[in-house]
Design a protein that fits this description.
With 325 residues, this protein is mainly alpha-helical. The protein is 69% helix and 4% strand. It has a three-stranded antiparallel sheet with strand order 1-2-3. It starts with 15 loop residues before the first helix and ends with a helix.
Length: 325
């Protein structure tokens, strides 16, 4: 079983405990209450002074040139919406919790399926992550750079060494580093040929660590990645030919080419992950529904979050209604 670089069998989830405890949601609700009071009470301070002196401000403009009377009606609607929170108490909480447990099971299964589908992309990115952990690049002037063998290994908890789904142990990782140091020297400057040798060593190391299924998945990602760059290159050439044939000015051609190259430059660091984006976008709606169903229903007090939202609506709506009275 692979050992992660932080010494545990599985990667930590630093936000899981914080989010599940509800503290984040409570902080958001508290922040919304403070923001609502600031916007409704402190920003129209001059209108509140007139109101305290017994003068009507219903015809005065408030926001977006809308009169206070109209905002007061909006406040009444917000208070009515807040009052609808009482409907939650009329629903059987046992049925709500049952639906929440079903949503939780579906969410766990969908996350597991998504992680399994993304595994080849993460394993493909290991080549880049390993290379960047073994060498240090120093940028020079005029776009030049110098590459050195890292003087020491990064710390286990370094964000640069996440190695998600790493099929090797920390001892194997250290052994590979020591092998490269013995060959090229610690902290020595590298030539382009030497950096290519390091990349080849990393590729060989990972190919030996991968299972047949993982190796086949990484090869599929590699083929898709190559097709992506071919398509992107053809698109750049086609757009350049269009600008040349259509007789555009040299400035517009230069700006267009710079934008295209900038987009390609931004895509290079994520390369394989860019191929997974369409699938990730399709997963957003069902994952969002599952997350809401889990965190709103699968708990001791189902839909209790809406009561907290109702507090925000009531306080803000009451202040608007009071100002328009």
């Amino acid at each position: 079983m692979p050992v992660w670089l932080n010494g545990s069998a599985r990667p930590p989830s630093p936000t899981a405990t914080f989010i599940s405890s509800g503290r984040l949601f409570n902080l958001i609700i508290f922040g919304l209450i403070i923001a609502g009071l600031f916007v409704v009470v402190f920003l129209p301070y001059d209108l509140w002074l007139l109101w305290f002196h017994g003068k009507s401000v219903a015809a005065q403009p408030l926001w977006w040139d809308m009169p206070v009377a109209l905002w007061g009606r909006i406040g009444k609607v917000m208070q009515f919406a807040a009052g609808l929170a009482v409907v939650i108490d009329l629903i059987d909480p046992g049925k709500l919790r049952k639906r929440g447990r079903v949503a939780s099971a579906r969410l766990r299964k969908r996350r597991a399926d998504l992680r399994a589908r993304l595994r080849p992309y993460r394993l493909h990115a290991l080549r880049r992550d390993l290379y960047q952990s073994f060498v240090t690049t120093r940028q020079l002037q005029y776009g030049l750079k110098e590459v050195y063998v890292s003087v020491s290994l990064p710390r286990s908890f370094s964000p640069d060494v996440s190695f998600s789904d790493a099929p090797f142990s920390e001892d194997e990782y250290v052994a590979l580093y020591e092998q490269l140091v013995a060959r090229f020297g610690r902290g020595k400057k590298l030539s382009d040929q030497q950096t290519n040798v390091i990349k080849a060593e990393i590729r060989t190391f990972l190919d030996q660590c991968f299972s047949p299924a993982d190796r086949a998945g990484v090869q599929r990602v590699e083929r898709r990645r190559n097709r992506m760059f071919v398509v992107a290159g053809l698109a750049v050439l086609a757009s350049l030919l269009f600008f040349l044939v259509s007789g555009q000015s040299e400035i517009s051609l230069y700006v267009h080419s710079s934008l295209v190259m900038a987009v390609l430059w931004l895509l290079l660091p994520m390369d394989a992950y860019a191929l997974a984006l369409p699938g990730l976008v399709r997963e957003i709606p069902p994952l969002t529904v599952g997350y809401l169903g889990t965190h709103l229903l699968d708990r001791a007090r189902p839909l209790h979050a809406f009561r907290k939202v109702a507090v925000v609506l009531f306080i803000t709506g009451f202040a608007l209604d009071l100002l328009a009275s």
